[in-house]
Amino acid sequence: DIHMTQSPSSLSPSVGDRVTITCRAGQSITSHLNWYQQKPGKAPKLLIYAASSLQSWVPSRFSGSGSGTDFTLTISSLQPEDSATYYCQQSDSIPYTFGQGTKLEIK
Amino acid sequence: EVHLLESGGGLVQPGGSLRLSCAASGFTFTNFAVSWVRQAPGKGLEWVSSISASGANSYYADSVKGRFTISRDNSKNTLYLQMISLRAEDTAVYYCAKTSFSAVTGTFDYWGQGALVTVSS
Does B9 touch chain A (CB under 8 A)? Predict the structure, then answer.
């Protein structure tokens, strides 16, 4: 199984801050990396797929980068509605595995 | 608009069985692979199982292999998860999730709202 490690586990930035979340895969997954956003009591939503492609609903302040084993999710200017837990997930091979999540709480 | 609606969750005793359903609408169900992903209370996401658009191919996490069976009825636009020999560690919200391809892939572009399964005596 491919182990996915996210960091940090939580952070408390302010509105307008630039935020970066990192995700590391236990082996190369090329660009088969997705990011999901989950708000409390809600289902996850696909945010970014194939490491850097934004879903149609996603604001341009979100971006994803990386390949191989190291990936990042960046929010260029944090907004109040970005408060959520973010998960990375590898879609390279079964079993599909998720990172442990990064909880973003805005100050 | 894509809509996935899970049902069939509830409280079951250890060793018991339960069948989850996921009714799909707003897209051509027969064209896409679908999956189940679960989330234990306060925990992260865990992929459970996936099935191809035709139903010919299915895959399972080791934690549920031999106990859970995924299936689909394309005439009813419905996905199922039959769960037997349930354990306390199966307690979770179970989400059905759509992919963008007919073959099984691991990118889940739409999710249902989830069904809670609680395994407890």
Answer: no
